Amino acid sequence: MGETILEMQHIAKAFSGVYALKDAQLTLQKGRVMALVGENGAGKSTLMRILTGIYDHDGGTILYKGQPVHFKNAMQARDAGIAIIHQEFNLFPNLTVAENIFLGDKSVQSHGLVDWQAMNRRAQELVDSIGGTFSVEEKVQELSVQNQQVVEIVKALAANAEVLIMDEPTSALPESEVQHLFRTIRGLKARGVAIVYVSHRLNEIFEICDDITVLRDGVTAFLSEVGATTQQEVVAQMIGKEVTVLYPKQDAEIGGVVFEARHLSDGDTVKDLSFCVHKGEILGLYGLVGSGATECPEALFGLVRGAHGTFLMDGREISLHSPAQAVANRIAYVPPDRHRQGIIRQLSIRFNLTLAVVRRLCTRSVIRRKDEQATVDDYIRKLRVKCAGDSQKVTFLSGGNQQKVVIAKWLATNPALLILNDPTRGVDVGAKAEIYSLISELACAGMAIVITSSEISEILGMSDRILVLNEGVVSREFLRGQADQKSLLSAALMRPDETQGGV
User: Which of 76, 168, 462, 463 is the most exposed place for a label (fewest CB within 10 A)?
Assistant: First the structure.
């Protein structure tokens, strides 16, 4: 075990008399990675905001390097050597990498002027030291997501961070880039940096973390070295009960073709994609970045200008040049980024849930409140949305319940085809199981479903049939039970002309 650098003892925090944290504890050691896990609403974000000075705490003690500390703001914490990399990067895209790294840092100034040559040299040395392969004179907007994450890490190192908090660090990364991040983390460990790794992805935690802390209802419920526990035990500690089946896939009766796409192209990534989806079928689309797996759903929903192809719904040719046309043809789409594309966080559950069907609920531009209320009540009940009431702002819901509102909004349109683009991104294990169960129930009721995911296990666990995409076309097709993680990745890495699969 390494030397202890930070201890959070018996931390408590209440908002308007409601406790977010009651008795939270966290111990970090130099050169080790501590996984911090728990359901959304368990108190993880609150605990990290207290540590970084964003929130004050109502009770408990923070010891940093053996001394009590009480940071008044994030700048104080950062100056002391505690930095956080948020899930949404805090970068200026129109500035260079070096400018982002040393923004506001007077150490690169000489007589009040920036020493550009020295700044670029120091920034490049830092980037090179953790395996970065890009120039610091590039603008951030020109970098890949993985390299933007490297910039965030280097910003922390430039500030001499000794404690680094990573909040869902792989949520925006394709699976093929995760190992690059892990190599960087191992390099940080070798430097003696203590890392808090906040994530819902248990397979990653068991690969990269040394220790694990589980929060449940504001209390530290479980502490262990990763090697001394199992994923099943961690899940049980997170939700307070055993989850025997993470992917509750039921065998649905698969009927005739509901939707067919022929020669779909978006003019860029998707080149010549043809496939069909049957009634009651869950069709999984999998591929690496640039394969077309993520872009295909956007093109189908009319979100990509210039996308074209031939589309049939129940054997009838339809047009899909806009989301309005897609909805009119009973196609619904759940986007991968609920905050930017799925919900309006500052508005109520009722407003968000009925947004896609508001015209149906109106008579002469006046909403029929009775029908609106019946719709809202029905979907809150069906999807088991945990809330104080339908007037509650969506921003105050947990991530899993926010995602349920997004799904409910589109189910209210009564779709024949439901397209789910990475539907459990940033959702905790308990909420994931509920969403998977809902998807399975919808398929059993006869809905045709297309699902994409950045997690191979999700595609394998929920799909009746899997299409692996590469270079914008289908490179392989697998029926349920025919594929595993290795075969999917192998198919995703092979050129289409090297495979014999197809639809």
Answer: 76
Pair of tokens at residue 42:
């368990």
> Measured between alpha carbons, how far is 422 from 333 in angstroms, rounded to an integer?
11
Sign (positive or negative) of CA dihedral 312, 313, 316, 318: negative
SS3 label, residue 475:
strand
Give the number of domains in the chain: 3
What are the beta bridge partners of residue 28?
Answer: 6
Helix, strand, coil: what percent of the chain each, to 5? 35, 25, 40
* pLDDT score for 244: 53
Q: What's the DSSP call for residue 142?
A: G
Read off the tokens for 388. 């104080």
Question: Is the domain of 319 the same as that of 461?
Answer: yes
Highest mean pLDDT among 143-152, 198-207, 311-320, 390-399: 311-320
Residues 6 or more apart in contact with residue 395 via CB below 8 angstroms: 345, 346
What integer pLDDT is reported at residue 500 of this predicted model?
A: 46
Same domain (yes/no): 104, 190: yes
- Whether residues 293 and 384 share a domain: the answer is no
Residue matched to tokens 């030291």? 129
Is residue 45 domain-shared with residue 152, that is, in the same domain? yes
Q: Is residue 335 part of a domain?
A: no
Question: What pLDDT, on the 0 to 100 scale, is given for residue 354?
Answer: 94
**Neighbour count for residue 382 (Cβ, 10 Å):** 13
Distance CA 310, CA 263 (A): 7
CATH number at residue 122: 3.40.50.300
At 501 the pLDDT is: 43
Q: Where are the beta strands (DSSP E) in 147-237?
A: 163-167, 194-198, 211-216, 219-225
Q: How far is CA 322 from CA 179, 223, 306, in A?
A: 37, 50, 11
Local structure of 246: helix, strand or coil:
coil
317 and 310 in contact (C-beta within 8 Å)?
yes
Indicate if 173 and 282 belong to the same structural domain.
Answer: no
DSSP state of 258: E
Express each pLDDT in 422-449 by its tens digit.
Answer: 888 877 777 788 889 899 999 999 999 9
CB count, 10 Å around CB of 89? 16
The backbone torsions φ and ψ at residue 82, rounded to the nearest 5 degrees and listed phi first, read: -115, 115
Query: Comparing 110-114, 267-271, 401-405, which segment has the lowest mean pLDDT?
Result: 110-114
DSSP bridge partners of 219: 23, 216
Strand partners, 478: 466
Q: Which residue has the tokens 């009766």?
A: 253
The C-alpha atoms of residue 202 and residue 189 are separated, in whole angstroms, by: 20
Question: How confident is the model over 183-241, as pLDDT tens digits?
Answer: 888 988 998 999 999 987 888 899 999 999 999 889 999 999 999 999 888 888 887 76
Domain that holds residue 471: 245-330+415-503
Matching residue, tokens 């192209």: 265
CA gap 348, 92 in Å, rounded: 31
Distance CA 350, CA 55 (A): 30
